[in-house]
Amino acid sequence: MNARASGRWNSEDAVESLNPDTIVSIINDYPYHVNALIQTSDLCKLSEDLAMAAELIEQALYYLEVAFHPLFSVTQGNCRLDYRRQENRALYVAMFKHLAFLGGRACNRTALEFCKLLLSLDPEGDPVAVKLSIDFYALRAKEYQWLVDFVEQSDIRFYLMQLPNFSFSVAMARFYLGDVVKANDLLQDALLMFPQALMPLLEKCSIQIDKRVSQHSFFTMPDEKNTPKALAPLITLFVSRNCHIWKDAVLLPWLEKNVHNVLDRVDQNDPIVQDYFEKRMRR
């Protein structure tokens, strides 16, 4: 007879049940049960008790840290954890949720450091997709040079510039660093590679769209025809997360100028436009 049939719930059954009372009872009996703490944090977040949700995640991280092996040092950057092993997943999940709470409290530099830590645990696999958010926290923390250096060192291995978030974010970082010429080239490359990102980005930023831009087919073409299925959610995620950064008044004239430069190249049938289209469709 299994645990459920006998009326007795083990800890894993309790966590999977999503029953708040059952999960809380597990925490009362086993205060160090990390998965139960994470699940309870999610329940608190759903009820908009963000302070308690963040505190529970911090408790989970503390208990995980207490259990670290003496040779496991997160400061050296040479420790690896296989996410496919069930025992390791709680650390990934807890740190990812913690950095999200940190970002919500505007602790952007700390959130960036947690992104670096998560990525160091499995830089090849990146099981929680830190690469889709690390650029955001780098920009919010004003770590522009670090972002540029990180992409230059990692692009050969991970093809980061083929992701919409890095294409636009590195251009922005270059702009803030004062390298306007390089920033212009990178932004135009990003717009040519991911034209579907512009209109949603402008709408999210509540920016009045220029008539030439709004009527040009290059930026208003149907998504289902010109956007690979794998690319569409990446663009949506980039726009929803990074739109607040693009509201900086300093960026808008720069963006507008480069958008029109891209349209000039499109109207002149620049061969690079077709090259980027073919690259995009091969994703």
Structural features:
single chain; 283 residues; mainly alpha; 17 helices; elongated; TCF25/Rqc1
Q: Describe it for me?
A:
The protein has 283 residues and is mainly α. It has a domain at 143-282. The chain has helices at 11-17, 20-29, 34-46, 50-66, 86-104, 108-121, 134-140, 144-158, 164-176, 180-193, 198-204, 211-215, 217-220, 223-226, 232-242, 251-267, 271-281. Pfam families: Tcf25.
Write the layout of secondary structure elements.
Layout lengths: L10 H7 L2 H10 L4 H13 L3 H17 L19 H19 L3 H14 L12 H7 L3 H15 L5 H13 L3 H14 L4 H7 L6 H5 L1 H4 L2 H4 L5 H11 L8 H17 L3 H11 L2
Helix pairs in contact: 1-2, 2-3, 3-4, 4-5, 5-6, 6-7, 8-9, 9-10, 10-16
InterPro entries: TCF25/Rqc1
